Amino acid sequence: MLLGAAIGLLVSFSMDVTVASPFDGTRVTNFGLISQRNSIQMVSGFAALCAVLLITLSGRRSSTSEAPGDRIACPACAEPILRAAKICKHCHTEIGTADRPPEIQPSNHDVVNVPVASNADLRFVVGIVIVAAIVAVAMKLGLT
Prior knowledge:
Elements: H1 2-13, E1 18-20, E2 27-29, H2 31-58, E3 71-73, E4 80-82, H3 119-140
Antiparallel strand pairs: 1-2, 3-4
Keywords: Membrane, Transmembrane, Transmembrane helix
Organism: Paraburkholderia franconis
Protein name: Zinc ribbon domain-containing protein
């Protein structure tokens, strides 16, 4: 997206906005071409801004990931709980340090604290909305 914005800006800056006069052969400024150049610059600038925002937002990562050995089975209900837990969040049984069971390894079918939407999903949706906005602006300005 950033490359497309840079190409659009390059094309618009190198665009000739003059036309040959049919009377004496001199070149005169064409306001329609100036308007088209300004439209290309606005869409390209907006695309560049969106690309910079997407690049900035995609660099953030969540640091709440847990190692596989951080969970143990509750001695009362056998549900996976954090090793440091004092009370089971499922059955509310108090967990003592003496009766801690051995740690469990999560399997592929265990669902533990799965977020509703990940950051990748959010970035994808934001990207689609931005592309749709760019296309809508381009269509409105008559660039397509």
